[in-house]
Design brief:
single chain, 173 residues, mainly beta, Porin, 1 helix, 8 strands
């Protein structure tokens, strides 16, 4: 058992040491995704690496970019009317990237943004109305991109933008 643990630890460091830094200074990545839940929000984010080699001169990078998320739904109540709702999140994001193994870019960061929400009731004319609210928002997030080719990856992200869990495709520009 002791030999297996030692072999596992050595294997991890060999793989981590051989990993090429995917997110290097000057790299730009566009994420296009959907949130998972009862309704399907869509999102897009862009990130550009501004510095790399933060850990041992080889790994660790910082990226800055923007975020846009959109979500809407409506419910009909027959002759009584229809309810519709929309939510738009616009934000700036910063993330720290660390690559543990080849082809996998892992990261965590912070988003500061603005959340624009509106709701509308369209009824029989007596009770028609709209409401809207906007507020500053912030979020911590963590994610990973797995590269199938040098420019195309699948990504998954936890944290709140327009959804708590989102998945999609990443394109290295």
């Amino acid at each position: 058992m002791k030999k297996i643990v030692i072999l596992g630890v050595i294997s991890f460091f060999v793989v981590a040491a051989s990993a090429q830094d995917i997110f290097q200074k000057g790299t730009s990545v566009l994420n296009l995704g959907i949130g998972l839940g009862s309704y399907i929000p869509i999102e897009a984010s862009f990130e550009h690496s501004i510095v790399d080699g933060l850990i041992d001169g080889q790994n660790g990078a910082i990226g800055l970019g923007g975020y846009l998320g959109y979500y809407s739904y409506s419910d009909s109540y027959g002759a009584l009317g229809k309810w519709s709702y929309s939510d738009i999140v616009v934000g700036a994001r910063g993330a720290f990237h660390y690559q543990f193994v080849d082809k996998l870019d892992t990261y965590a960061g912070l988003m500061l943004g603005y959340d624009i929400v509106s709701a509308k009731w369209k009824g029989d004319g007596v009770f028609d109305g709209t409401a809207s609210a906007s507020a500053f928002t912030s979020s911590f997030f963590a994610g990973a991109r797995y590269y199938f080719s040098p420019t195309i990856a699948a990504y998954g992200e936890l944290g709140y933008g327009i959804a708590y869990l989102s998945v999609g495709v990443s394109l290295k520009l």
